[in-house]
Structures are given as C-alpha cells and as structure tokens.
Design goal:
Length: about 300
C-alpha cells in the first residue's frame, strides 16, 4: 500500500504517457497547483495532471513573467507528481536560461519524478502566453534549446514538448513552420499558444505531423473548444492550466467577503468541502491503520 508516494514508478508513468500520446485518445490534463488538487484530478477520472507556470507563480504571489526558479518549479512539480498514479507534465518556461540551462532543467525534472515538460520559444524572461507584447527568439535559438533538452534526457519516454508563441507575434503560418522545425529537432509534442478558433486549430492539425496539445485556458485569446471538437480534429492533449486555481480563488474571495459581512461562516458551510471528504482524499484512515500496525507490531516468534 503506497501512502507516501505514487504506487506507479516514474518510469512506468512516462511509458504510460508515451503510449497515451500514440493511442488516438484525447488526453485531458487539468492543472494542479498543489498535491491535494492533483488527487482530486485523479479521483475525477482525468488522464493526466498538468502543472502550469502561471498557476505556480500565482500561488507564490508572483506574476507569470519568468520570476520562478528551476528549484521552485522542480520541487513543487515533484510533490504534485508523487501525489497520484497519473503522469504529470510541467511548464518549464524557456528552460530557465540558454541551452545548457535547458539541459539541466530536464535532468532536474526527471529527478523530481515528472513525466514531461514543455519549453517555449519566447525570449527570457517570458510573458503569459495570452498577453500582448510577447517576443519570440529566432527559431534557430529554440532549436538549440530543444537539442540540448533532448540530449540531456536519460529516460527516452520523458516527453519534451515544444511550445511556440509565434501565432500572436509572427502569425499562424510562421507558427506552423516553427512547429515543423521543432518536431525535426526532436520534440515529442507540440503546443501552439493562443490559436484563435476551431479553424486555426484544424489548420494546425492538418499541417503538423506530430502529437498536438491544445490550451483551453479561460479569459484568453483562444475559443473554449469542447473535448468532442478537439477529438474530431485529431488533437492528442487538452490542458486546463489555471482552471482549478481560478475556481478555488473565486470561492475563497466570495467566502471571505461573506464572513467579513456576516461575522460567521455559517451561511457558506454548504459551499465548503466537508472535513470527511478531505480525509477521504488524504486517506486519513489508511494512515491511522498503518500507524496502529507499527505500534502493535510483534516480531515473529514473540507473543503479544
């Protein structure tokens, strides 16, 4: 019984993810900003977990402009990855530096138990992918990042996803050409940020011969497509990167306002996760049983 980590090894998670990308089935990966959220993602029946750089930054009280460090990202990502048996893909921004830094990033994320990451072609420091004013590096610079990342990978099933932000800077055709070059450089999965609508997603799918990831983030530049629409045009992965954080923070704001006005939380108890439900996610009873078994342990041959 695995209590303190996943019951599936890092190696098997990565192999499972590799197989899932080749399965023809759309993989749905909600974002998790904490291990507890990852447990809820798994219990809800999703295929994987995503760790958003924007959500991680926000949870630290920082904007998504490249302020987080590799140490912070790897530590949080590792805690989330070990909370479930699902594979976890993490946002590694621009690789935290130039090509050698990207190589070290892959080693650190593999060691932390992640199943894959994505690197993007923005300048460093980056900006949120759905904001104006982004800049992208030349494609040749991103290809060097990818080459370094692929070369540093020890587990061949660790997924290296290439994200391009060129759609909002250079246009759709340029983003497609970059994606093709990134596939040639060894990327396993392509993430094109800020495509506008179903037609652009379809055009991208028709042009790029590689597994593709769709970002269904709220309040951004992309239409919120359904899983049926994404399946029908042949996308492989859909992420909901900041959805759980937005749900949680909306509830926190509303609840605290109510307490400030009423002087009690009595009126909002029905909106809270009950203690009993939390204990189910935390497997409180299993920990108690384990603890009790240790204290009542009797060595073979001894009488209790």
């Amino acid at each position: 019984m695995a209590l303190f980590s996943s019951s599936v090894s890092d190696t098997d998670k990565r192999a499972n993810l590799r197989g899932a990308l080749d399965s023809g089935r759309l993989q749905r990966w909600p974002g998790a900003f904490s291990p507890l959220v990852a447990k809820i993602v798994a219990e809800a029946g999703f295929e994987g977990v995503y760790v958003s750089g924007a959500a991680l930054s926000a949870d630290l009280g920082l904007p998504d402009i490249g302020l987080t460090t590799l140490t912070e990202v790897a530590e949080r990502g590792g805690l989330i990855a070990r909370a479930t048996d699902l594979p976890t893909l993490i946002d590694a921004d621009t690789g935290f530096g130039e090509p050698m830094s990207a190589a070290r990033t892959i080693a650190a994320l593999e060691d932390a138990g992640l199943s894959g990451c994505h690197l993007e072609d923005q300048v460093n420091p980056k900006r949120c992918g759905h904001l104006d004013g982004k800049e992208v590096v030349p494609a040749e610079t991103m290809i060097k990042r990818l080459a370094a990342a692929v070369g540093a990978r020890r587990d061949p099933n660790f997924i290296i996803c290439a994200r391009t932000d060129a759609r909002g800077v250079e246009g759709l055709d340029a983003a497609i050409e970059r994606a093709k070059a990134y596939v040639d450089a060894g990327a396993d999965l392509i993430f094109t940020e800020a495509l506008a609508d179903l037609d652009e997603f379809r055009r991208f799918r028709e042009a790029v011969d590689a597994p593709l990831l769709a970002n269904m983030t709220e309040f951004g530049k992309s239409a919120l497509l359904t899983t049926t629409e994404l399946k029908d045009i042949g996308f492989n992965v859909v992420i909901y990167p900041v959805t759980t954080l937005r749900l949680a923070m909306g509830a926190v704001e509303t609840g605290l306002k109510q307490i400030a006005e009423d002087g009690t939380q009595e009126a909002i108890l029905d909106r809270m996760q009950h203690r009993a439900r939390l204990y189910e996610y935390l497997r409180y009873a299993d920990y108690n049983d384990f603890d009790s078994s240790i204290f009542t342990y009797v060595r073979p041959g001894e009488q209790s």
